[in-house]
Amino acid sequence: MQSQLQNGKVTFRPMQFDDVPVVAAIDQVSFPSPWSESTYRQELRENRAAHLYVAEQHSELKGRAEIVGYVGFWYIVDEVHISTIAVHPTLRRRGIGRMILNHALEQARALGAELVTLEVRESNRGAIELYRAFGFTLRGRRPGYYKDTDEDALVMFKERIDLYQQDAREKVSEH
User: Which domain does 88 fall in, by range?
Assistant: First the structure.
């Protein structure tokens, strides 16, 4: 997938070991309890259910691509669980998160998933709005899930992912 932004194109590719320091740095500035570099390496090396992708923004000015966000999910049988997703804080509210989520959902559909699940901090209103815009619904709550703040996680589902492609282009083109 490729989309246009003011400062260049955004493309997606599978995460590689060389990407881990940059991804972990984005994680550090995005979450109170970030994943470590070793966690990302373990996901890449040992977890056969894991699918991790980076979003790169290509800049003609800089003459190179930079990682601006990422997504990770686990595909098991007919279900995808989004385990991590983030955009660098300085680049938020530009549609990159929408593109990343869209890419994850397209990959999930291509794998044959029928359901996508995720947890999100109850206080993360921006993410909750994004997920709702993509058809996720609130299905539960995990009290005290986030141990760093004892905050609850909201459990959200998107069912019938096999129908996803029909409305995907509309969601991304809104930005």
Answer: 2-173
How far is residue 83 from each of residues 39, 54, 61, 66, measured CA to CA in Å?
12, 14, 33, 22
Is the pLDDT confidence value at 132 over 70?
Answer: yes
DSSP state for residue 34 in the 8-state scheme: P
Name residues whose C-beta falls within 8 Å of residue 12's C-beta, 6 or more positions apart in sequence: 1, 53, 54, 55, 56, 100, 103
Rounded-to-integer distance, Cα 61 and Cα 39, Å? 34
| Total count of domains within the chain | 1
> Residue 3: is its pLDDT beyond 50?
no
Pair of tokens at residue 93: 């509210």
Which pTM was predicted?
0.87
Tell how far CA 4 is from the center of its chain.
Answer: 18
Question: Quick one: pLDDT band at residue 2, thresholds 50, 70, 90?
Answer: very low
CATH number at residue 89: 3.40.630.30
